[in-house]
Every structure is written in C-alpha cells, then in structure tokens.
DNA sequence: CTGTTAGCGCTTTCAC
DNA sequence: GTGAAAGCGCTAACAG
C-alpha cells in the first residue's frame, strides 16, 4: 500500500471566501492587494485568512497567471566555490525580495544546460541567470522572461552579461610578473572550450607579446580542470629543460593544485599569480598573490540587474564589467631564480 | 537544422492529440508510459510529440497530480563549502534520476527555515532534505512527503537523519592530542544553538574528563561563526596566562581563522586538530590534522536514502551515521611546548 | 484499448 | 464593489 495520505485538507481560497461570506474573486482581490474592495469586506477576508491559516497555492497561481515568482539560476556546479558564492549571494537577495530560487548545475555539459534551461522555462520562471556553457544561445532570443548571463558571454546571442574582464586580469598578472624580471611565465588553466579560459589565455599571450617575454607554447598547460590536474601540470612545467620562473594560474581549481605542487616540490621560490582569491591564500608562505574577482560582488550585481529587468527597466549597456584587483601577498613579487 | 523553439506559444497536449487524431487522455497515457495503448496509436502520438516539440507542462501536471518531481533541499547556506558540496552531490544524483531540485538557505534562522519549508511544501515537492535549524520540527510529523534530515537531528520529532558522529569525532580529536602529551586543549567552535556545535563540545568535554586533562572553561571559545571570529578566539587563547598547548577547532569556518591566527602569530608549534577537511590543509606547514567527514559521502547517502523513501521503502533505522577518519598531517602530532 | 467528463486552486473576463 | 462562470494544461475517474 502507498503511504497513508494525510487528511490535512489544504485550505483553499474557496474556504476563506465562504467563511467571509463573499466570493472567491473578492477574496482573491484582497490577497493580491487590489484596492477596489470595501474596507469592511477586506477585514472579514483577512480575518478568515488568518483564522484558517490560508496560504495561496503557488502552483495553481503559476498555472493561471502563466508566471512564477521563482528565479532560475544555472551554473557549472553548485559545489564550485566560485559559483557557490555567486549563487548564494543571488539567492539571499532574491529571498529578500520575496522571490524563490531554483538552482541547476550543468557540469559544463551543453546538453545538460539546454535541458535544465528548458525545464526552468517550462516552469515559467520569472527570470533566468545563466553561466553559459552551450555554444549557441540563440534559442533564448525570444525567451518569455528576462535572461541574464554571468561570468561568460553567451554565443549566438547578444545577451546582457555580468562579468569580469578576464583578458585584462590575465594581462595584469603577466605584466606584474614581467615587472619582477621574469621572462618565462607558465600558464596553467582550464579547458579551452570555456570562454573564460580562452579569454584569460588570450590575455596571457597578449601580455607575453607586449612585454616581449619568451613566447614558448610548451609553457602553456590548459585543459586542467581539477586541482589534481593543476598539480600535475605544475610538476610537468618544473621538469622542463628550460622551466618557467613564474606561473600564472587561470582559475581557482587549478590554483589549489599549483600551490600544492609548488609546496610538495619545495619550489615556492617559483613566482605565482592566481586568478581568483581563495581561502588561506594569505596564510601560506609565501602568501599567494591573486587577481581578485569578488564572487559576492558578481552576485550582487547580477541580482540587482535582474531585479531591474523584472521591474521592467530596459538594459542600458549589454555588459556590466566588474573591476579586478591585484592583491600582492609575496608569491607574485619574487624575482626569477630566487632560490636561496 | 534544429527546429526553432517558440517558447511563446506553448504546444499543449491537446495539439498533440489533434495531430494524432486521438484524445488527450490517450496522448497523456503515452506520455506517461502507460502500456495499455495500441502500438499504432502510440507511434502516431510519439510522431506528433516530436514534430510539435511537445514538452509537458510541469506546473499543470503538478497541480493535477498534487505532487511534483522536485526535491526540496534546505541548508544553512549554499555558500558554505560543506553544504555546497553536500547539496551539489544530491543535486547531481537527483538530476540523474529525472528529479529537479529546489534549494533554499536559512542563514541558520529558524523563522526563515519555517518559511522556506512551508513554501517548498506548498509547491508539493516530492521530498524534503533539511539541515535543521529550528527548535521544533513537530510540524513536519504529518508532512505529505518524505522528509530527511542531514547533518543535525531534528527536534521535537523522530525524523530519519543522515549524520556524522560529532561527539565521537570530537572525542577522537581530543584523545589524539592527549596521546601526544597535551593537558591543556583549547576549543574553538560555532554557536551553541547549533546542535552540531553542542555535540562536538560535549564530546570535547567528555574526552577532557576521560583523559583527565585540564578542564578549564576559559579554554572554551564557542559562538565563533566566521573565520574572523575564529581567528580572534585563537589570539585570545594564546594570550591567556596559562595558554593551551593544543587547539581543537570544531568547524571549518573557524578552522580557517584558527590556522590564519597561528600562522600570523608564528605559533604553528601549537598542536591543532580540526573537525572537517579543507582545501590546502595538507599544503600548510605543518599540514593540518583533521577529523575528516566527507561531505560528498553525506550527499550520496542522503540522496540514496531519499530515493528509497520515494520508492516507498520504509526507513529501517532512524539514523544513518557516516564514519569519521582521523587524517594525520603533522599539526596534531606535535608535542606540548614544542617550540624550537 | 480509447474517449468523455470533471476537476486540481487560482485568476480573469464580463457582467451586475 | 462584487460575483458567476470560464478556463490555465493536465490527468483520475469512469464509462464505452
């Protein structure tokens, strides 16, 4: 037998209306704050609502109105510290505005992205915030709700986007290392099918050229998606005939591996700048110099932008870029061949 | 050529039925995998489904069936690394079973917990996984769906719970420190209104007594919820007339602060055992000894338990406890007065 | 095997 | 100001 269904019959609007001796429509008006109801009637209805403990059914309301008070958020992985922070911030602000939040992870799989986005759309979400993974987002051109992209630009669509200037951040990192006298700077980063990686790698290459450093492709180790892979890449780089004297790590997952490798090999003399701050970066010896992009700030900006769209305000600029900040802690200020 | 999706004009089951020259009910049967439909009819309907790009409306279905294929997850904060990992794991497994996931954070506020749980319930979630914060969960006794608690036991209700043995973990940590010869062991941990903290503190006190160590309440610094507060608490402890020679940190947020403080004061000779592993714990010098409780394992167990309940299997035991593991990395193996 | 009829709980015409 | 009726898209009953 199936589990016993609770006899707790839900209080419906009809029950409220009956108790207040009025119609469901009038009760509905009161619930929805329609002013055109007699004060006396309104009082009766509110009393009934409180007495019965009535709570409107969001599903029925959603079906009838064709819209929901839920925000859809689609990110790579909720377990990724960066996205966890961004998502958590958005959720907090959304709740404060009386909005619910539905979160879905894609695992960076375009097909999963398409599935979850369509599902969210089918649920009539009020708005959609997406860290894009797919290569074509043109199907969102006529989406029935505001769509905002985060961290990466959509492809095949001029969608409003909140992001950091990956290219500039990478250039800044490499320029900083060049200023310490480094000529051979290694790159460790994620997969090339992620736009963020491509932009950071492009910035790295731009600045290598601009600073006239060694443009050696064997110093570039992309497609490292986990800390373990970042660690392995670092070990490889250090084993090169002409190893780099400095490393730029392009994302936090990699950074954790790079740091682990440098400490394991006792090669903390190798200069290091990481894209993205992380816990304990300031505690290590030496402290890890980072290009800081505050995930909470991204969350706040994304949430506020979405609230503007939900309120009907049109987008002014298609892109909102957040500033980056070089945080010097020691690892990035070491000179080449700094072994002691 | 991928078919263009017009999200605006929704394809309804009625359209599919008309195209297949049948009734909506028969079409509904096919959609829901009812075998009692003629193969030929089924083929016509499936063809229409594909041609029209029909996707069932989850809202309408939910309203009609009185249930949804969404799992509700309620945790302290999605930005907390521990809960991000647990939640991410559950989400991944849920998606794989065709379930959606709705996540809500409470910020450890009992009123917010009550609000979000009721909201999730109003949305007819298929099941609810809760890291409890409120002090009374008796209102969930007759919940219309399976409810599973994670990380902490509910109060006022014998609910099925997945957790780690906080008390035993704390005892193990203190016993380990006692074995190194420490007699004064400090405690840094979260707020006392969180059951996890209470259990770990109780375990700490139990073992202090069992090992006949100094039971000095001035060594106990609870109510530290952030890394900054953990850092401050550590500084306070070290400034005591009779400072501890070892510290037990009861949660990861605190641990990050404790570690930062020890490094900042150059007092890494103070022995340290932390409850909960964290990134770079093995990279620091000395490596941080931890009582490891794998958040992913908790997520897997929680998800599987929930799937069992959704399938109708009754709970065998009310509690499922995950094993803890002492990971020795150096910080917890240092002797007292180990300054060099 | 298939179709018709009623709703799920709510909000929206459009009357009064 | 208020209310009756008509659905939103779907599926549980119960016929046929």
Automatic annotation (TrEMBL), chains A, B:
Keyword DNA-binding: yes
All copies of domain HTH lacI-type, residue ranges: 11-65
Organism superkingdom: Bacteria
Single GO molecular function: DNA binding
Keywords: DNA-binding, Transcription, Transcription regulation
PROSITE patterns listed in its UniProt record: HTH_LACI_2 (PS50932)
SMART domains in alphabetical order: HTH_LACI (SM00354)
UniProt-listed Gene3D superfamilies: 3.40.50.2300, lambda repressor-like DNA-binding domains (1.10.260.40)
PANTHER family: HTH-TYPE TRANSCRIPTIONAL REGULATOR GALS, LACI-RELATED TRANSCRIPTIONAL REPRESSOR
Protein name per Swiss-Prot or TrEMBL: LacI family DNA-binding transcriptional regulator
Species of provenance: Cryptosporangium minutisporangium
């Amino acid at each position: 037998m199936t589990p016993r269904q609770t006899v707790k019959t839900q209080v419906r609007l009809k029950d409220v209306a009956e108790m207040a001796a009025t119609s469901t429509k009038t009760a509905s008006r009161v619930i929805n704050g329609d002013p055109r109801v007699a004060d006396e009637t309104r009082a009766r209805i509110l009393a009934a609502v409180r007495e019965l403990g009535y709570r409107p059914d969001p599903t029925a309301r959603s079906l009838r109105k064709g819209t929901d008070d839920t925000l859809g958020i689609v990110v790579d992985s909720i377990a990724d510290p960066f996205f966890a922070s961004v998502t958590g911030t958005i959720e907090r602000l959304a709740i404060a505005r009386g909005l619910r939040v539905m979160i879905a992870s894609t695992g960076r799989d375009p097909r999963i992205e398409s599935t979850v986005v369509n599902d969210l759309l089918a649920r009539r979400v009020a708005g959609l915030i997406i860290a894009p993974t797919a290569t074509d987002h043109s199907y969102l051109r006529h989406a029935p709700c505001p769509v905002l992209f985060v961290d990466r630009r959509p492809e095949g669509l001029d969608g409003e986007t909140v992001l950091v200037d990956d290219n500039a951040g990478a250039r800044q990192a490499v320029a900083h290392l060049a200023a310490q006298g480094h000529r051979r700077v290694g790159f460790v980063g994620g997969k090339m099918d992620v736009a963020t990686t491509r932009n950071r790698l492009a910035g790295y290459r731009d600045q290598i050229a601009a600073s006239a450093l060694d443009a050696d492709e064997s110093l570039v180790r992309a497609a490292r998606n986990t800390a373990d892979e970042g660690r392995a890449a670092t070990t490889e780089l250090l084993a090169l005939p002409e190893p780099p004297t400095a490393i730029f790590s392009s994302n936090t997952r990699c950074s954790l591996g790079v740091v682990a490798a440098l400490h394991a090999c006792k090669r903390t003399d190798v200069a290091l700048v990481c894209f993205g701050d992380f816990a304990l970066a300031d505690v290590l010896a030496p402290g890890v110099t980072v290009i800081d992009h505050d995930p909470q700030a991204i969350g706040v900006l994304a949430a506020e932008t979405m609230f503007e769209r939900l309120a009907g305000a049109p987008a002014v600029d298609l892109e909102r870029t957040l500033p980056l900040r070089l945080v010097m802690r020691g690892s990035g200020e070491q000179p080449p061949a700094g072994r002691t």
